[in-house]
Amino acid sequence: MEPVLTQQKRPSHRRYGYWFLVVLLVLAALLAIGYTYRNSTAQYHQQMQDRLRLVGEGQSKNIAHWRSTRMADAATISQDPFFAQALAQWQHHPSAPLARQLQERLSSLVEYSQYAVAYLLDTQGRLVLGTDNRAEIPPLPAQEQAALQQALDSALPVAIEARPSPYFAFPFFGVMAPLFDGYTPVGAVWLVMDLRSTLYPLLQDWQVDNQDAEVLLLQRLPDGSNTNVNPRPQAGLPAFGQTMPMTHTASPGVQAIAGARGIVRGVNYRNEPVIAMVSAIDDAPWWLVVQLPEANAIGDTQRREGVTLGLSVGAVFIFIGLLLGLWQWRAWRHERDLQHALQLHMRWLDTAQKAATLGYFVYAPSKQEFFISETTQRIFGLPHAGWIALQQWAALLLPQERQGVLHAHDTAIANAQPLHTQYAIQRQDTGEQRWIQIWAEMDAERQHMIGIAQDITERRALDEQLHQYRQRLESQVRQDPLTGIANRLALEEAVEREWRRAERQGLPLGLLMLDLDYFKTYNDTYGHVQGDACLRAVAATLAAHAGRAGELVARYGGEEFAVLLPGLTLAQTQAVGARLVQAVRALQLPHQGNMAQGGVVTISIGAACVQPAHDHGCMTTWFQQADAALYAAKQAGRNRCCASAS
């Protein structure tokens, strides 16, 4: 009977061993499932942080660009001498043409730069002109009056921070641009921007699977508190203009103002734990907070992972023989859930980028395919959103730029570096050429490049117009307004430039200093209007006789002129001066006060020459020598050119 008993015990041992193995497998499965759950949750957290960071950085750049554009507009106005001169002339001698000229300039700011209204104020803050046809405005509040005084004192534009005001039926942001006629303040232009139509579209709510995601723009107040500039605050958040204390230290907004940057965790105004991207707006008392409740950010994922965990554990106990198959099924289910979550968040990002006129895209290097949003599809003129091949996108690039753009993308992907570039495309639907700006970076796993595309064609055109306008202003600053020739500033710059060139090449520099003989008597006899005409005629004659490369005729001041003659010796310089004396006398301009020279306008000239050295003190001596020679020419009877004795 013993062999029979032995045979009965063996199955019992195998059964114990089997269940022991089952227990080990179950524990291993539970440990594996728990590890996978924690890893996927951490991975989702990282993805959420990356998306918040991308949204926050893009919004911060847009808001900073919006504000810097307003300040640049004000600086351009302050640097326009003709606008200030027109205002000064109108204040001293009011006339309809001048008023119309000033009104047209204000109206152009409103029409082309999207300002709600523009006012022209005097130095006391009183209304001079405005684009809303107000006969007068109430006295400026303390904040605007202080901004006006600060702008006049510093000669720089001063921002008037966003706030509601009884002046207007809308929240506004203003800039005070001072105007100077020379060194004399004559007033200021008060530019008013309606936040509802300009800044607010950049601050629309960003949806992430729910209605609780939001963007807050905070502004620090002089009393130490802060206020929300968000146009549609959620329940419990003070409206625009109401203050929020700094005592709620767990708030992401308070953390941002206290110095925190990047991804932070805190508690919002509804006492909910949130994850937020906080950043400071450059050159402004503003802070941007993009926040999302933590519970809502990971709640659906936790529930899905819990269901998956329960199914997996149940499957282990019920279908132990199919354990490996169930593991594979769980991996497939997990991947499907992540894809579903990615699609949801892509829809959220698509909603967000529509509000900011930004389009997002995802590039999969392994498949060489792009996933583009509807806004990106409209920017590129493609027939549909979704997945497109790399070749289809590359065909939109201009042929001469295609290799460079592709190389920039490949380099960023290979080195896992952020990509920020601009390039031109030819839209597929209309064939129109547009300029595109790209911000992109690789995800945490370096499997996809996630980025934002923006059409900047109009912005580039406006920047080019502003650049050309600044160039025209700079050229006008270096021109004498009466005679049309170079002024003293242009002469000083030309002397510096030619001095360095002569120093390198070992060449001499010639200089003529001249003025009109008895010009004060001429003005007293013929009047200042005829005197101005005389100066213009003499300037034109001088300019006509100095045409070599590098030669420059400039009005030095009053009736005094200077002629720069690079590469000429003293004898050659004096010869040029003698020709100028004869040319001016040949004009035969009547001058009763100069009867000793035949009753016509004449000039006296002093000539000097220098061999430039490294010591710039020689430059001053050079001018003094020419001036002394001019004095010698006058002492010798005028209507002549004398050379320096040194």
Task: Explain the overall architecture.
The chain has a six-stranded antiparallel beta sheet with strand order 8-7-6-11-10-9. It has a six-stranded antiparallel beta sheet with strand order 14-13-12-17-16-15, sandwiched between helices. Strands 2-1-5-4-3 form a five-stranded antiparallel beta sheet, with helices on both faces. The chain has 646 residues and is α+β, with helices and mostly antiparallel strands. 48% of the residues lie in helices and 22% in strands. The radius of gyration is 38 Å and the shape is elongated. Residues 1-11 have low confidence and may be disordered. Helix 6 (294-318) packs antiparallel against helix 7 (323-355). It has 16 helices and 22 strands. It has helices spanning 2-78, 81-92, 96-113, 142-154, 252-258, 294-318, 323-355, 374-380, 390-394, 402-415, 457-477, 488-505, 519-526, 528-544, 570-585, 617-635, and strands spanning 117-121, 127-130, 158-163, 172-181, 184-194, 214-220, 226-228, 243-244, 262-267, 273-280, 286-293, 359-364, 369-372, 386-389, 419-426, 433-442, 449-455, 509-516, 552-557, 560-566, 603-610, 641-643.
Topology:
Elements: H1 2-78, H2 81-92, H3 96-113, E1 117-121, E2 127-130, H4 142-154, E3 158-163, E4 172-181, E5 184-194, E6 214-220, E7 226-228, E8 243-244, H5 252-258, E9 262-267, E10 273-280, E11 286-293, H6 294-318, H7 323-355, E12 359-364, E13 369-372, H8 374-380, E14 386-389, H9 390-394, H10 402-415, E15 419-426, E16 433-442, E17 449-455, H11 457-477, H12 488-505, E18 509-516, H13 519-526, H14 528-544, E19 552-557, E20 560-566, H15 570-585, E21 603-610, H16 617-635, E22 641-643
Parallel strand pairs: 21-22
Antiparallel strand pairs: 1-2, 1-5, 3-4, 4-5, 6-7, 6-11, 7-8, 9-10, 10-11, 12-13, 12-17, 13-14, 15-16, 16-17, 18-20, 18-21, 19-20
Helix pairs in contact: 1-6, 2-3, 6-7, 13-14
